[in-house]
Amino acid sequence: MNKKIALVTGGSRGLGKSTALHLAQKGVDVILTYHSRKEEAEAVVAEIEGRGARGVALQLDAGDCSRFAAFAAQIQTLLHDRWQRKNFDYLVNNAGIGLNAPIGEITEAQFDQLMNIHFKGVLFMTQALLPLMADGGRIVNVSSGLTRFSLPGMAAYAAMKGAIEVLTRYLAKELGPRGILANVVAPGAIETDFGGGRVRDNAEVNAQIAAQTALGRVGLPEDIGGVISALLAEENRWITGQRIEASGGMFL
Ligand code: NDP
Predict the structure, then answer these.
(1) Would you kindly state where each structural domain of the chain is located, as residue ranges?
(2) Is 34 a known active-site residue?
(3) Which residues pair with 139 in a beta bridge?
């Protein structure tokens, strides 16, 4: 049987990096994308290869739909040249940015940036890559706990994540005939660079979240990489169209 190949957007840091490393640990080869931090992405590739899997890092602006056809062509060539394959198995739509802006202050430009990266980009990236996905493959999209609970300043971001959850159900429905599973993971607050690293670096914020979390601490990237890689694993063949919150029990 062919080795499995995953494509993880935003694999240079945070949750995407952890997902890439968990997959590599299980013997899955990983194509990861980064936006601007090439060195971090190359370092993740080195770690993937240190775990005995193959890794490749490609630059991508996940919010620029005009580039997606060329990106898909690049993936097609890469699959042929490196793997002698026509398709890959797992797609993780993870790349994203944090933007805190109350409804009374958010600008149209900020809204458009969030929309392009978090919703429009995910839909059209998936569309561009679907012809390159193997039947029986798996998609995991990344949402947020903020679709279930509400924190001031996160309205636009959370609403777009909500849209991703609906989109995921429709992906599961439309791709079911191809045997492709689609699920959405909704992480709680995780200690990454996201949103300026506030959850990790602001001790007060960190303690407040920990106090509201059943497991008594803030999440770490490893907490999410394990969940996403488990959903992608071949052992999961009957969970599809589901929102799975991975928040350690935040605001239960
Ligand atoms: P990080 O800031 O740690 O990493 C973001 C990743 O996305 C990096 O790989 C970055 O690339 C990439 N990226 C950023 N902007 C773009 C863009 N325009 N085009 C392509 N790639 C881009 O964030 P997290 O790992 O924390 O977040 C990952 C996902 O998880 C996001 O979708 C986020 O919304 C979601 N999430 C995060 C939570 C948290 O508390 N951290 C909670 C819930 C959901 P580069 O390194 O090159 O900049």
Answers:
(1) 5-242
(2) no
(3) 91, 182
Atom of ligand 1 nearest to the CA of 116: 18
Give the pLDDT confidence of 212-241 residue by residue, as tens digits: 999 999 999 999 999 999 999 999 999 999
CATH fold, domain 5-242, is Rossmann fold (3.40.50)
Distances from the Cα of 6 to the Cαs of 23, 51, 88, 233, 242, in angstroms? 8, 15, 6, 11, 20
Query: How far is Cα 227 from Cα 120, in angstroms, rounded to an integer?
Result: 25
Q: How far is the CA of 84 from the centre of ligand 1 (A)?
A: 30
87: left (phi over 0), alpha (psi -120 to 50) or beta: beta
Residue-wise pLDDT tens digits, 67-120: 999 999 999 999 999 999 999 999 999 999 999 999 999 999 999 999 999 999
Closest C-alpha residue for ligand 1 atom 44: 144
The partner residues of 30 in beta bridges, in order of sequence, read 6, 55
pTM exceeding the 0.85 threshold for the entire prediction: yes
Pocket probe mutation, ligand 1, options 13, 40, 161, 208, max atoms within 8 Å of Cβ? 13
The answer to whether the CB of 246 is under 6 A from ligand 1 is no
Instruction: State the burial class of residue 41 (Cβ atoms within 10 Å of its Cβ: 0-12, 13-18, 19+).
Output: buried
Residues in Cβ contact with 169 at an 8 Å cutoff, skipping those fewer than 6 apart: 182, 241
